[in-house]
Amino acid sequence: MLKLHYAPNSRAERVLWLLEELELPYELNSMPFHPEALKSDEHRKRHPLGRIPVLEDGDVSIYESGAIIDYVLEKHKNGGLKPSVDSPEYPYYLQWFHFCEGMIAQPMNTIVVHTILLPPERRDETVLGQAQRLASKSLTAIETALDGKEYLVGDFSGVEFMTGHCCTKLSDLGCVTDEMPNLKAYVERIKARPAFQKAISTT
Ligand SMILES: N[C@@H](CCC(=O)N[C@@H](CS)C(=O)NCC(=O)O)C(=O)O
């Protein structure tokens, strides 16, 4: 049985959404998003930095959301929800899959820190502005890529659990503007999926 170590409103939603979308049986260890749980000795044995998500599958215990998603698709979906290596779409699948942690996650974290987590007197407008500009450039690239398309690479694919999930979070943070109609529709399309709704409402 798969076991997901999870906290609400975090990257662990990506994996929960995937498991729900694939209708795989799983056990959920939902932890509070708090150092007491995440930095405990017990959880540091699963993840040396005390982070989530972590997925256990028998003797396997793996972290990094992208690695987990790729692992589950290969191991439990026989490579489904991703183009085959020979497909012309494959390089773009890899590109958009990695765009999430490579380009969007860092400015998104900074925006969360400087608009929500830090008390107002410690927020830095310069740092926030830089992050917002980088996020906006990345979102504009996605907006262009979505022209005439419902999903980033062919039909609904593994990319959505990564870059698609980031887009929903940046939309919630007010970074998806009226100048990004393709992206707005994409976010709505993702948010309408029952498996996504189940994942984001799980506490
Ligand atoms: N690149 C990692 C990032 C993992 C990560 O930073 N997770 C956050 C939640 S979104 C976390 O556990 N933060 C707790 C902390 O920083 O103490 C991944 O994609 O899994």
Blueprint (SSEs and pairs):
Blueprint: E1 2-6, H1 12-22, E2 26-30, H2 35-38, H3 41-46, E3 54-57, E4 60-63, H4 65-76, H5 90-117, H6 125-145, H7 159-172, H8 181-191, H9 194-200
Parallel strand pairs: 1-2
Antiparallel strand pairs: 1-3, 3-4
Helix pairs in contact: 1-4, 1-9, 5-6, 5-7, 7-8
Bound molecules: glutathione.
Glutathione is lined by residues 10-11, 38, 50-53, 64-66, 101.
Kindly list the characteristics that best describe this protein.
single chain; 203 residues; alpha+beta; Glutaredoxin; Glutathione S-transferase Yfyf (Class Pi), Chain A, domain 2; 2 domains; four-stranded mixed β-sheet; 9 helices; binds glutathione
Give the gist of this structure:
This protein has 203 residues and is an alpha+beta fold.
Care to count the β-strands? 4
Strand/helix succession: EHEHHEEHHHHHH
Q: Indicate the proportion of strand residues.
A: 5-15%
CATH architecture of the largest domain: Up-down Bundle
Measured between the Cα atoms of the first and last residue, the distance is 20 Å
Structure annotation, total helices:
9
Largest sheet: 4 strands, mixed
Report strand order across the widest sheet.
2-1-3-4
Structural class label? alpha+beta
Based on CA inertia axes, which overall geometry fits?
globular
**What's the gyration radius in Å?**
17 Å
- What is the CATH topology of the largest domain? Glutathione S-transferase Yfyf (Class Pi), Chain A, domain 2
CATH class of the largest domain: Mainly Alpha
Average pLDDT, all residues? 97
